[in-house]
């Protein structure tokens, strides 16, 4: 017992004097910004080249992309990525058929995601899905959740 306590105190003291494992960013450690070319960060979507083909949405293995109607003839819809859900696999980029990729992952990793779940704005869109996205199991789960929420609200109010 005593040995255990001594061990723990030693651990705490050693941790207190040890240099930090974490680093300040970006003010005190700007070199953290240097990353490999293959780093996969936030997406860039090019509205000028996108043809609204839905390939990125279909390729996404976890339903992180929804196609949002543009109201235009071409592209009739454009992808919106839920960055909180995305696993940054790059499959959307691989699937994009345009000569110059209309969706690609940049090296920009400075992002803060407050909600892993969908934002209220996107919830609205997910409730009215377009394309094959309704076949995605995660989307179905979200839709079910949304439906239950609406049902509960109707019952309460
Ligand atoms: S990077 Fe992968 S998970 Fe993220 S949106 Fe593209 S396909 Fe989906
Ligand atoms: S795959 Fe490319 S062209 Fe097709 S909708 Fe997605 S971003 Fe647009």
Describe what you observe in this structure:
- By secondary structure, the protein is α+β, with helices and mostly antiparallel strands.
- Helix content is 34%, strand content 10%.
- The protein has a single domain, classed as Alpha-Beta Plaits, CATH 3.30.70.
- It has helices at residues 2-17, 55-59, 91-95, 120-126, 137-156; strands at residues 43-45, 65-69, 77-81, 103-105.
- Strand 2 (65-69) and strand 3 (77-81) form a beta hairpin.
- The protein is flat and about 75 Å long.
- The chain binds iron/sulfur cluster (2 copies).
- The site of one iron/sulfur cluster has 13 residues, from helix 3.
Which structural class should the secondary elements be placed in? alpha+beta
What is the CATH architecture annotation? 2-Layer Sandwich
The tally of strands reads: 4
Strand content: 5-15%
Bound molecules: iron/sulfur cluster
Query: What can be said about the biggest beta sheet?
Result: 2 strands, antiparallel
Tags for this model:
157 residues; alpha+beta; Alpha-Beta Plaits; two-stranded antiparallel sheet; 34% helix; flat; binds iron/sulfur cluster
Secondary structure blueprint with pairings:
Elements: H1 2-17, E1 43-45, H2 55-59, E2 65-69, E3 77-81, H3 91-95, E4 103-105, H4 120-126, H5 137-156
Antiparallel strand pairs: 1-4, 2-3
Bound molecules: iron/sulfur cluster (2 copies).
């Amino acid at each position: 017992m005593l040995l255990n306590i001594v061990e723990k105190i030693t651990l705490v003291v050693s941790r207190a004097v040890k240099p930090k494992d974490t680093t300040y960013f970006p003010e005190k450690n700007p070199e953290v910004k240097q990353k490999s070319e293959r780093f996969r960060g936030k997406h860039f979507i090019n509205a000028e080249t996108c043809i609204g083909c839905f390939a990125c949405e279909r390729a996404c293995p976890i339903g992180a992309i929804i196609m949002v109607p543009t109201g235009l003839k071409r592209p009739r819809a454009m992808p919106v990525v839920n960055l909180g859900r995305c696993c940054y696999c790059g499959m959307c980029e691989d699937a994009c058929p345009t000569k110059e990729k209309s969706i690609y992952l940049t090296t920009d990793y400075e992002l803060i995601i407050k909600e892993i779940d969908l934002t209220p704005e996107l919830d609205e869109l997910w409730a009215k899905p377009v394309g094959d996205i309704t076949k995605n199991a995660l989307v179905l789960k979200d839709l079910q959740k949304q439906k239950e929420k609406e049902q509960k609200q109707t019952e309460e109010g």
